[in-house]
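Course exercise 7: structure representation. Students receive a sequence record and must write out the corresponding structure in token form. The form below is the worked example handed out in class, using Zn-dependent peptidase (426 residues). Read each field label carefully; the graders check that inputs and outputs are placed in the correct fields and that the protein name is recorded exactly as given.

STUDENT ID: A-19
EXERCISE PROTEIN: Zn-dependent peptidase
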Amino acid sequence: MAVVTETIHEMKGYKLHIVKTEKYKTNTFVWKMKAPLSKEDVTHRALLPYVLQSNAKAYPTSTVLRSYLDELYGASLFVDLAKKGEYHVITFTMEVANEKFLSDPTPLLKKALDFLSEILMNPNVTNQAFDKDTVEKEKRTLKQRIQSVYDDKMKYSSNRLVEEMCKGEKYALHVHGDMASVDEITSESLFAYYEKAMAEDEIDLYVIGDISEEEVKAVVNEKLQLNARQPKLLENVILPSKRDVQEIQEVQDVKQGKLNIGFRTNVVYGDEDYFALQVMNGIYGGFAHSKLFINVREKASLAYYAASRLESHKGLMMVMSGIDYKNYEQAVTIIKEQLTAMKKGDFSDQELSQTKAVIRNQFLETLDTARGIVEVLYHNVVAQQNISLDEWLEEMDKATKEDIIKVSEKIQLDTIYFLTGTEAAQ
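STUDENT ANSWER:
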């Protein structure tokens, strides 16, 4: 049974991905732009989508733009930024009612695609510069976004772990760029960067819904024409050679310590043991029945939370936990012991089958939303793979105990980062 079927068309300057489904009463359009992370560009990239979604030539103010969305039966438009391995990805998502379900004959699919193309192709620009007021307003908001990561200590400690662990690697750059670079951006420099991104980024447009493939192709062909390009791929990514484990402690005025531990998995999306790694992470720390949750949180009562997650395109596994500073040594010891247990095969068949069932449910739940479908399919673009969703589930299901032991043995502890309160320093 095909979970989801995707057809891909080569258009001028981008790929069009169509997923036909009768599951939703809406049509969803997702435009993704991907480029290798770089210190010079990352802050421009973090600002750009927010400026583009504020207004456009045809919709010169946010008010005009938003009221037009309301006219399209309350269509929504929002933007998002992500790091996928050492790539930076900008996403525009637009959702609109499917006209088949309306008594009104308005051609919403066409209008929505027209609107999206206006936002992307005809921005509010005069003399090679974006509207100055819009840029200044969005710069202020971007600074708040960067500051909010500092204020949220869970996010802050996750970021600090990555900065320390991946020092000298592109992955250490923050998805929102850096505070110091925001001030240097001008309306002119941002427009120059917009032209560069539109000419060079690898671009993918996903259209999901109960739609006519021919109609979608005809509309996008008319509206969204770009110059042909070769996707910019990462230059040889050099992984650091094996080194001694780094331990970093940072003191701030926090009530609860944040312990974040980074491992190199030496496995990325598309590798043959990637599916076994997914299951391994699930048993180790991915879910409420996992070893970290039970041993660190429940049995030893050391942590307020304890979990692990994978960065599939960079080959990292991160453990996050909230602990009191006096429990630091004991918590680190138990977290290490659970990985040793995985390497020894010290987990039951029940843990294995329960984890696979939870992963399957989570996966199918993700595919219940149009945006979830895109997130899962987009892994193939990032990794230059062609793994179907059915194949994903089959391969994960096939992972044996031996496969999981084998992939666990590849995992190496790299960095331990602990954010602790001022009382600990005294």
